[in-house]
Amino acid sequence: MPTVVIVGMEETAVPAWPRRVLVVSGVLVGVFALVAAARVPVADSSVWLEASTVAVSALVLVAAAWWMAGRSATIDRRTVLLWGLGWGFGLGALWIAEIAFNNVTPPTVSTASNRGVVDNVTWAVVGLATFVTAAWVTVRTGRWRSGLRAGVWSGVGSGLGASLGGAALLAFLRSDVERDPLMLSEWQQRASDMDLATYVTRETMAGVGGHLWVLGIAQGAVVGLAAASLGIVVVRLRGDSRPTAARSAQ
User: Can you give the three-state secondary structure of 137-154, one letter per residue?
Assistant: First the structure.
């Protein structure tokens, strides 16, 4: 007789916290980006263009994520959101710590060599954690699409966290970045004819957008796809591709 796959109601339920955290994070990114542009002493159209792009893209992302999180037909939704987005926000906090180390700690501590180590370790931890999460969700559910979605959601969470840290840094602690010897040296070599505050804001705002879309969502999708592919191989080698909920219901 054919096997009937039963998916528990709890797997299709929408946890309350993801949407709330998504909205708060996205709105704060947009507000902080615009505040940072407004606080630049010399009005600069490029700064406002970058800030507006970051703000609008963050809000568009949140709107799309809100809709995706609430789709009633999504399979394994609870597992994907709890593990993908949950870990993603934790990784976003890790990015915030990396940004703080690079820009707020004393220059004697955050030297160029130390920053390189912290940057590489943070990037590696984020990538590895995303990979493990997506692979685990794939094996648990028996569906590679669920693993891929977990990787993407992890990228959404980590990208929003990182961009939130960068936008807050620009909005409230730009003077700390301006006093950074490495930033001063870069400014003198590359754009000494430009106001320092403008240069710092332009460069950092570009990093905010890069963290959100490249190191966040794009990396989460690529890593999630690789992890889901490996995970589904494990599932097939194990000889049972049915979801965990279905197996436990028998």
Answer: HHHHHCCHHHHHHHHHHH
pTM of the full predicted structure? 0.87
Q: Which phi and psi angles does 73 have, rounded to 5°?
A: -90, 0
The H-assigned helical ranges of the chain are 9-12, 16-38, 45-70, 77-80, 86-103, 112-141, 144-172, 174-178, 181-190, 196-212, 219-238, 244-249
CA distances from 236 to 32, 119, 128, 129, 137 (A): 47, 37, 23, 23, 15
CA 248 vs. chain centroid, Å, equals 33
- Is residue 216 within 8 A of residue 158, CB to CB? The reply is yes
Q: Which of 27-36, 77-86, 132-141 has the lowest mean pLDDT?
A: 77-86
The two tokens of residue 136 are: 């685990």
Integer Cα distance of 177 and 194 in angstroms: 16
Q: Can you tell me which residue has the tokens 């996205």?
A: 26
Distance between CA atoms of residues 182 and 74, nearest Å: 48
Residue 106: count other Cβ atoms within 10 Å of its Cβ. Answer: 7
Type of residue found at 172 = F
**pLDDT average, residue stretch 17-39:** 94
- What would the two tokens of residue 174 be? 């730009």
Long-range Cβ contacts of 44-51 (<8 Å, 24+ apart): 44/195, 44/198, 44/201, 44/202, 46/202, 47/198, 47/201, 47/202, 47/205, 50/201, 50/202, 50/205, 50/206, 50/209, 51/205
* Average pLDDT of the chain, as a whole number: 89
